[in-house]
């Protein structure tokens, strides 16, 4: 199978996704699944080279990178993200096999070995040239969607496989019911335990945490022809998902139906002069005692697994902030390789193979189901503008 030619609206795409329509226009058989991850260091010697990869093109000196490196060095220089993606890969393979779907899963990362270029070359060497990618990021923004699509285009160019390998991408899955459902039991159990131990509902709060991004990047997230508010699709999607989770938490345990919740942000970087999405989780925790909150459940809905931003920014810094404020805090689960979530991933694979019509696709919020093919100009990188991408219509 060859890439769409230069006259088609979507580069590097399968025939079913090359026309530029928002959703696949016909069923499409794929040769393999490409699991696309962020990557992380697996030893102390990897930390600075990994951070150089993360910040490539921004000219950040090593002494400044070392300020972030201590997060990784605290855990022996090892990010858990690669081990988690190995586990997720095995779980997806097992679920595919259980359903009788004969598709190999190739795994590659943006910032550390195994790299995406290695995974795509491995697939091509095996004769698997029509790939369906699943990126381990659920929401719409430059770093969580468009950058992965830039990675696909870059890798095809660097490997010389442009015109040989095609890469489609599974839709953003923020409101797929399996993703939403995977958060519910852990939150419900944490809140129920607070109530069982005498904390009143009014003194209990859920903080839904996600990675902050620059406000200009947030404003440009999602398609240009929809108004999502000042936080763009990125903030709107998180708010919608949090509301959907809390509705299910209330159904899980009726005592929890009126527990208050809010969206907070973490892991801010960049110069202080650059506005980023707020409020910061630690700032909000500091304010909560004045609002008579004495117990919080912190749910990392912006993350698929317990990688460094969860282990350091939440399990370390946010829990320390809660201790300082005299607030009881529990960090609840990410999806990881939970069977419910993994089944949802394979549901999404089957959905794309069959080109299920949008009206028949499951979506847990009014914002979805999201597009198979990203729309023109969505999720622009404010700093660098538009680069060539796969799985989307050119601006």
Quick tags:
395 residues, alpha/beta, Rossmann fold, 2 domains, 4-stranded parallel beta sheet, 38% helix, ferrochelatase activity, metal ion binding, Ferrochelatase
Estimate the mean pLDDT confidence.
95
> What is the domain total for the residues?
2
Output the structural class.
alpha/beta
Low-confidence stretches: 1-6
What's the CATH first level of the largest domain? Alpha Beta
Biggest sheet details = 4 strands, parallel
User: Per DSSP, what share of the residues sits in E-state strands of 2 or more residues?
Assistant: 5-15%
Percent helix range: 25-40%
Q: CATH topology of the largest domain, which one? A: Rossmann fold
Number of helices: 12
Return the CATH architecture of the largest domain.
Answer: 3-Layer(aba) Sandwich
- How many DSSP-defined strands? 8
Report the principal-axis shape. Answer: globular
- Encode the helix/strand succession as letters: EHHHEHEHEHEHHEHEHHEH
If you compute it from the alpha carbons, what radius of gyration comes out, rounded to the nearest whole angstrom? 21 Å
Strand order of the largest sheet: 2-1-3-4
Distance between the termini: 25 Å
Description:
By secondary structure, this protein is an alpha/beta fold. It has two domains: 15-173 and 338-360, Rossmann fold; 177-331, 3-Layer(aba) Sandwich (Rossmann fold). 38% of the residues lie in helices and 11% in strands. It contains twelve helices and eight strands. It has helices at 47-54, 62-73, 81-98, 116-125, 142-158, 177-196, 215-219, 232-252, 281-287, 308-311, 313-325, 339-354, and strands at residues 32-37, 105-109, 130-135, 166-169, 204-211, 260-266, 295-299, 328-331. A four-stranded parallel sheet has the order 2-1-3-4, sandwiched between helices. Helix 5 links the parallel strand 3 and strand 4. Helix 9 (281-287) runs parallel beside helix 11. The longest helix has 21 residues, at 232-252. 50% of the residues are buried.
